[in-house]
Design brief:
- The chain is mainly beta.
- The protein is 12% helix and 37% strand.
- Strands 2-1-4-8 form a four-stranded mixed beta sheet, with no helix packed on it. Strands 3-10-9-7 form a four-stranded mixed beta sheet, with no helix packed on it.
- It is elongated.
- The structure holds copper (II) ion.
- The site of copper (II) ion has 5 residues, from loops.
């Protein structure tokens, strides 16, 4: 629902704008997307990129949602995903934003998206 609202808001802004030509960004990236920081993980539609990551004990990993795509009305459609670990730790199920987790103990941490299940999964190896 939130994604739809944003899409409509963006569409109406675009309709009222119009002071000479298109001002769309040349890279055409919908504004709901958040590029991950270096060493971060991008939450895309139906995949985490990179899917596997190895870090040192005590490190923080940041996921950034990039699940919005432009639509034909100059707005965007954003799909919801989550970062949900087998140990129960989870991000919200959201269509935009970021999530961070700090790993204080060595081990293998498997996670998946609550909506897309095993088809959208990743692993953090902490050593
Ligand atoms: Cu998902």
């Amino acid at each position: 629902m939130k994604g739809l609202f944003v899409a409509l808001a963006v569409a109406s802004l675009s309709a009222c704008g119009g002071s000479g030509g298109s001002t769309a960004p040349s890279n055409n990236t919908p504004p709901g997307n958040t590029p991950p920081p270096s060493n971060g993980i991008s939450v895309q539609n139906n995949m985490f990129s990179p899917g596997s990551k190895t870090i040192a004990v005590g490190s923080e990993v940041k996921w950034a949602w990039n699940s919005c795509t432009g639509d034909v009305y100059s707005g965007q459609t954003c799909q919801s995903h989550s970062v949900t670990f087998d140990d129960g730790t989870t991000s919200p199920t959201q269509d935009q934003g970021t999530y961070s987790r700090t790993f204080g103990a060595a081990g293998t941490y498997n996670y998946h998206c609550l909506i897309h299940g095993a088809a959208m999964a990743g692993t953090i190896t902490v050593q």
